[in-house]
Design brief:
The protein contains two helices and 41 strands. The protein has a seven-stranded antiparallel sheet, with no helix packed on it. A seven-stranded antiparallel sheet has the order 3-4-17-8-13-14-15, with no helix packed on it. Strand 30 and strand 31 form a beta hairpin. The longest helix has 21 residues, at 30-50. Residues 1-28, 42-53 and 532-537 have low confidence and may be disordered.
């Protein structure tokens, strides 16, 4: 069977940074130097494959911990990016542990996240699965574990001292199937949810496991005579941005993910050590469009190959770009000579763009289905509002006048409505208005900040991104935060989480639905980039 190698980069930051420096300092044309950078990092990735032949997906190795009666195992399925684990063992409790562990050595801060489920009815109600952080592979090691039991008990368990007693903090929530464990210094936070719901959390703030630890997935049968099995998908090990990172001047790595709405399984299809942002799904269903460092790229899904899109003299493009409904034209946002973001239009195949705005900032977000108009967020008179402008050129029309930020406008596929986000009610929420700007109506009303509503091509669903109000201002959508992707019926109603991730700015600034309305593309972020997975096609 033929295999393709996806671009998922190892942490050889010395070479990557040298290549990035060369790209920035080169006297070559910017487009050529960007292509050179992607080619060089592709070579780096290929070299890393050979050095990782003993790894298990993103993990370094696996072990049975303690004297188990039946050996456990862990396997990785490249096509689905799922892990299947089996394990025996008496328990993970008291002064020592017995279980099967798939692990990676880590230092510093990290975020561990997965969807997890037992396979089969099982024997013991206290069989366990989840994430673990462990000082060593010894049976009596210090550890902290984010645990879901066979009977549904969900808890944070930890051993402070070698050979010491295990302690526990139980959740009211039971039978969680989304499990996250985060370390920041000596503080560990376990966050859990039933798939589709928002996280609830427990925290330990004074646990010292040392800086160099083993992190990974585990299965424990809670019965030495049997072996239990579990499946883990959406497995992510994230290294967050450092506390001293300078926003909008320094960046960490990026991953494009493809989400199947039916299964809610998300697969990483491309990674880069630099910032890539805002994937549009192109109308042929075979390519994505994203921006990186001022340029736009098309990304071939079959070959996993990015190619610079010719945008002429517009080489300071940001992450507000949108494809017309007929797939023939592209509206982009790019800084002019004054440094202001201005709207431009060009053929989807590339070419010299045509300027749309006389003044800025202006950020292009949506085409009308008939192709006659473009809606955008513009700053005029010290207010950011929604404007409409003829795609052929002409005067802009202001559609919103409420104080505060209105942003992210997008037409419904039938052209009757424009969806947008507005801070006018206190927090950022999703709104809708008729195409002429009348009947402005709030659709979401919760205790979170909700941005960038995108309507599915079949007109049934709204996807949007949710920020925790304790991490951001209502009028800001920064990089590198805990965020959710959620969907709701197009006319309003209950929302469901479809992805839990570390991202924010650049994740879904643009429409990212596949033409079939069954898949989504988005960007997540991490400083830690892994070896290439061999994935069967």
């Amino acid at each position: 069977m033929l295999k393709k190698y996806y671009f998922i980069y190892e942490c050889n930051f010395t070479l990557v940074h040298q290549l990035h420096y060369f790209k920035l300092q080169s006297s070559m044309n910017k487009k050529i130097s960007h292509l050179f950078f992607f080619m060089c990092t592709a070579i780096l990735v290929h070299q890393n494959v050979a050095a990782q032949t003993n790894s298990i997906g993103i993990f370094d190795g696996q072990n049975d911990i303690g004297k188990v009666k039946h050996s456990g195992s862990g396997t990785y399925e490249g096509k689905s990016q799922e892990y299947n684990l089996s394990g025996s063992g008496t328990n993970i409790w008291a002064m020592h542990d017995e279980f099967h562990f798939v692990w990676k050595r880590m230092k510093g801060d990290f975020i561990l996240r997965t969807n997890a489920a037992f396979l089969g009815k099982g024997v013991e109600e206290h069989r366990k699965i989840g994430w673990m952080v462990r000082t060593s592979l010894d049976t009596n090691s210090k550890h902290i574990s984010a645990v879901v039991h066979g009977a549904g008990l969900t808890s944070l368990q930890f051993r402070r001292d070698i050979g010491g007693a295990t302690e526990e903090k139980k959740f009211e929530l039971t039978s969680a199937d989304v499990i996250q464990l985060e370390r920041r210094g000596k503080t560990y936070t376990m966050s859990v949810a039933r798939k589709g719901d928002l996280f609830v959390s427990q925290e330990i703030s004074d646990l010292d496991l040392g800086d160099d630890v083993y992190v990974g997935l585990f299965v424990c049968a809670h019965n030495p005579n049997v072996t239990e099995k579990a499946v883990f998908n959406n497995v992510r090990i994230v290294v967050p941005a450092p506390p001293d990172l300078v926003p909008y001047h320094q960046y960490i790595g990026s991953a494009i993910e493809e989400l199947d709405l039916e299964t809610q399984n998300s697969k990483i299809i491309y990674q880069s050590p630099i910032s890539i942002q805002a994937p549009n799904w192109m109308k042929d269903g075979k390519n994505l469009l994203f921006n990186s460092d001022g340029l736009l790229y098309t990304f071939n899904l079959a070959t996993s190959t990015p190619t610079v899109l010719n945008t002429g003299t517009a080489i300071h493009n940001n992450n507000d770009h949108v494809i017309s409904f007929d797939g023939k034209s592209l509206a982009i946002s790019s800084a002019d000579k004054t440094g202001n973001s201005i709207g431009w239009v060009l053929p989807i195949t590339g070419g010299e763009p045509r300027r749309m705005n006389e003044i800025g900032p202006s950020y292009m977000h949506g085409w009308s289905p008939d192709g006659k108009y473009i809606v955008f967020c513009g700053s005029r008179h010290k207010e950011y509002d929604i404007y409409r402008i003829p795609s052929a050129g002409g005067p802009e029309v202001r559609l919103t006048t409420a104080p505060g930020l209105d942003d992210g406008p997008e037409y419904s596929p039938d052209g009757k409505y424009i969806y947008f986000n507005s801070v006018r009610s206190g927090l950022m929420q999703v709104w809708r208005m008729k195409a002429d700007g009348s009947e402005q109506t709030q659709l979401t009303n919760d205790d979170y900040d909700n941005w960038f509503p995108h309507i599915s091509p079949d007109g049934k669903w709204i996807e949007y991104i949710t920020f925790n109000k304790n991490e951001v201002r209502p009028d800001d959508h920064p990089f590198y935060r805990h965020v959710y992707l959620r969907v709701m019926p197009v006319g309003g109603g209950p929302s469901n989480v479809i992805a839990y991730l570390y991202g924010g700015q650049g994740t879904i600034n643009t429409p990212s639905w596949a033409p079939d309305s069954k898949h989504l593309a988005f960007v997540s972020n991490s400083s830690l980039l892994f070896p290439v997975f061999p994935i069967a096609k």
